[in-house]
Sequence to fold (136 residues):
Amino acid sequence: MKDIVTLETALRLRDAGFPQPTPEFGQEWYNREYGLFVVGFIDAPYARATIIYNNRPSVFSKNLPNFSGCAFAPTATDILQQLRDGSKIIIMDKKFLCYSPDFEHGIDHPGTPINDNPAEAVAEAWLSLLINNEKK
Fold:
């Protein structure tokens, strides 16, 4: 199990307006071309960060403005902080279910997001709330 969303979900979140934070040490991000990377040392005066790709043995340097083409890989906690108070994540049958009081249905409704990955369940809740709000 991962603690972050997949590349596809990170891109959907970014494109839907999920906040993309200023890069910080230890954060995980996706680059569509090269995959997942971790932010290392940030050299603020030069607006550069070292980055480490999971699938490459080298350390790279990236200009902070170039992060705009990347997508933040949020954890369930990062996404829950963007939901309304009273939102919760529940474990049910070894899967994670995310419920928000903004849903128009009960927690036991088949449309309630459920996933093996808590970050994916919460991301689906955030995205579905966004879609429902746009329909109103």
In short: The radius of gyration is 16 Å. The chain is about 25% helix and 30% strand. The chain has a mean pLDDT of 83. Residues 3 and 24 are 17 Å apart (CA to CA).
